[in-house]
Structure formats: C-alpha cells, structure tokens
Design brief:
Blueprint (H helix, E strand, L loop, with lengths): L1 E5 L3 E2 L2 E2 L4 H7 L8 E5 L8 H11 L6 E4 L6 H7 L2 E4 L4 H10 L3 H10 L2 E5 L1 H4 L28 E3 L15 H11 L5 E3 L5 E5 L2 E5 L4 E4 L6 E3 L2 E3 L4
C-alpha cells in the first residue's frame, strides 16, 4: 500500500504547505492529470463544495485532477477510477457514518489495497485504523459501528499533545489514551504531533516531519519514535 497519514492540514505556512514535499513523493509515479477523489464527509460546519475547493487549490501544483466524492454521479465508479483517494479532517464519526451508509467504506479499503494512493489527515488518518476509537472528536452522530478501514494494524491519535493548561482539571491526552490501552492492551496507539505524519510503503513505515511521536501499548511506558523508519507491533 501507498499511504501518507498526516496529523494536521493547516499550519502557519498555509493549508497543507508543510506536507507538500511528502505529498509529491506519495504521487511521484503518477502522470500529470491523474484522477483523484477527495472525500469531504468529515466536514460538518464546512460546506463540502468549499472544502473540495480548498483542497484542490492547495494541491493545484501537484497536477492531480481532484473531484469531490459528494459531487460524483456514481461514487463507486469515481473511487474505482481514482489513482489517489484523499480523505480530509473534521469529525471522524460523521466521516465514517457517511461512508458506511453509502456502502463506500469497503470500496475505499479495497481500492487502496489494490494500489490507489491514500492521503489522509486528522479524521482521514483515523479512518485507516482498525477502529476510530482513538479519535479526538465528539460522537455527534452514530456511525453504526466504530470499525474503520483497517489499512494499518494499529491506532493513530492525531494532533497529539500532552499539554495541560494551568487550572484545567480534565484528563491529559496521555491519560485518555491510557484508558484505551487499559481496555485494549494488545492494540498499539501512535500519537502523532502537529506537523508529523506516517509514510507507509508496503510493509515499511517511516515517521515524517520534524517531531518525535509517542507509542502507547497496554501498561507499558510510552516509547518515543524519532523521525525515520519505524516498526509498530503489539
């Protein structure tokens, strides 16, 4: 498989600017004008047409021909023809629910396993995991199950930070992930900080970006991965 899973899309430099070099590497073997489908369903307060325009504008220099999946007359055919499947961030529950209700979840998983490149950020990265149980999002809609694409064998927690503002009495992110790990002791969770991503090429994985990432597994002390090749196993 050929995946680029980002923690975030926006940065001080602009929308997806921080990841453009990795995105170009993801699609470097594709011809100019290769068909790409953008899945905007994580957008809730963001209009899907506007979301698609935002992404197409940000990726204009890549040469991809980007179509919003929501505007396709035949969404299955659009996915079948796509050389790249792009899945944006927003609310993971809405994203998963929309794909499941339209019967598209299995189509996306199959197309990526068949060789379509996959670019996702935030909710789009959560979607590649066995489940969406390590998303940061509120369950604003019932997705009819938490099982997701299962393209990777571990969980991702995007936007990872363990910051704890003075006076805040709620749990830190690490404490929340410890709850997941207590009930799912054999399932690794990779905390991806802002500006970071995971590059998957077949069986090989690498942490991209300038920051270390944190791996949680059961009751073990969290492990730190530096940018570069990583191996994540239970």
């Amino acid at each position: 498989m050929n995946l680029l899973l980002l923690s975030n899309s926006s940065s001080d430099a602009g929308y997806l600017v921080h990841a453009l070099a990795d995105i170009r590497e993801l699609i470097e073997s594709l011809p100019q004008g290769a068909p790409a489908v953008f899945v905007p369903y994580a957008g809730v307060t963001r209009n899907w047409d506007d979301y698609t325009t935002l992404v197409a504008t940000a990726l204009a220099d890549t040469g991809l021909a980007i179509q919003g999946l929501h505007s396709a007359q035949d969404p299955v055919a659009a996915l079948e023809e796509a050389a790249v499947i792009i899945v944006g961030g927003g609310n993971t529950f809405n994203l998963l629910g929309q794909l499941r209700r339209q019967g598209l979840l299995e189509v996306v998983a199959r197309r990526v396993r068949e060789g379509a490149a996959y670019l996702g950020w935030s909710a789009g990265s959560n979607l590649t995991c066995p489940s969406i149980c390590t998303t940061n999002d509120m369950p604003i809609t019932d997705p009819q199950g938490f099982d997701a694409l299962g393209l990777v064998s571990f969980q991702i927690n995007p936007h990872y930070t363990n910051a704890h503002p003075p006076g805040h009495r709620g749990e830190t992110r690490a404490q929340r992930l410890a709850e997941f790990c207590t009930l799912n002791p054999s399932m690794p969770v990779l905390g991806l900080p802002e500006g970071s991503g995971l590059r998957v090429r077949g069986e090989k994985m690498a942490l991209v970006g300038p920051h270390d990432a944190t791996l949680f597994l059961g009751p073990q002390e969290p492990r730190m991965f530096r940018p570069g090749p990583v191996e994540i196993t239970a």
